[in-house]
Amino acid sequence: MRFRSSVAKYSAPATNVGLLVLGAAYVQYCRDGVVEYRHYIHGYSMDVLMQILLYAGGFLLVVFGVTNRWTLRIVLAVALATRLVGIFAPAFLSSDVYRYVWDGKVQAAGINPYRYIPADPHLKFLRDAQIYPNINRKDYAHTIYPPGAQIVFLGVTRISATEAGMKTAMVGFEVLAVWALLGILKFFGRRREEILLYAWHPLCVWGIGSSGHVDAVVIGLVSVGALALLRGKIMRFAVWIMAAAMVKMYPLLLLLSLGRRISIRMIALCASIGVAGYALYSSVGAGVFGFLGGYVQEEGLKTGSRYFLLTWAHRYLHLPEWPALYVLFCALVLAGIAGWGLVRQRQPKQMLGMALALTVSATIFFSPHYPWYFLWIVPFAVMLRYLPAIVLTVEAAYWFATSLALPGERMFRMDEYMYAIFFAAVAVDVFVRWWRGSRTSSQLPDRQRSGAHARAYGERVVVGEFYE
Q1: Which of 3, 65, 177, 385 is deepest in the core (most CB within 10 A)?
Q2: From CA 302, how far away is CA 318, in angstroms rounded?
């Protein structure tokens, strides 16, 4: 007993020292990454790959090592340092953050952000040397961001109408997500240090800390909603999800995870939030939807060239490339997932499992051309510690840092590699669950075996528990 206490005494400091070493290296690769485009060091994709290895090492330390009260502080300190590197460096992976600041400045001038494109002469008086030159599609596209996002942009630019100010605000929403995720980890009886799965995730570091994407708002609101769900506040969950959908539309899908808990009152409340949000900017009529129609055309959503699974089926199975039929197929699959949950799920934890299934399925069906569209998967993958989903999001961080991340044949090959690895991870996960379930069942008396089998293949598969 004395030997064990002695080992525990020295094991926790060893874990912390290990995290400090890994964290210092992680931050250094962030510093390298933000200057890769100007001063080539060893390639941005190599920076991300090394961060993935450090991320995996940190995960193993906090899950299997001995921790103490300093461990969480180290994890969060490293996470903050990585964000600070990105906040105060110029955005180079995406220029979306400049549009955010511009939309906020337009609103502050008393002008509807959906009314004019940035290059319109009516907005000439707002042009500056830092924001306006870096806005993408400024010569032909109205803003595409929904009213919830516009409210955030206005609020942030009233404090700081700069790129760094907007990035800082997005990291602030990450802080909200971390707070909620810590509460969820405690609810599940897991170590708080497992927040490293989110805090050190390369996709979050580069997609939010460096690029300042508004998806951070979605992550923060969805995470708070998930905590409310676990506390039995179903209606609050719906409200938080609807608020997230007013920032980016796709979280609306998460309402399906509630299954039979969806009510007429809930639908009416969510619809009221949506109507109220769009009413704030309704002076432009149908223009309140901004560049949405143009985006659908520009990104190949109408022609079907955007959808990897459709292209794959056409190329290898010689199926007709009909985008409308593909969208209908995807909708039916998502409806089937929601329907299965309607019949089987009972507990809030199972609803989170359903939310994870919906986010992963929708993302694969949509096959994004940009890595930050994978961000909404991360909080659910962390909540449920579902490793295949974490693998998919880590892959997105890496593959989109390589030369394969160019639309066309290269990106098709990239998607083949990325989704093949993900489905292989799912297959391994299913096999391990089956093996553990059958072994557990064989060790129980016959009268207990059926119940153990149900638990092994029912709630555990939906929830996505880790192999402890």
Answers
A1: 177
A2: 20
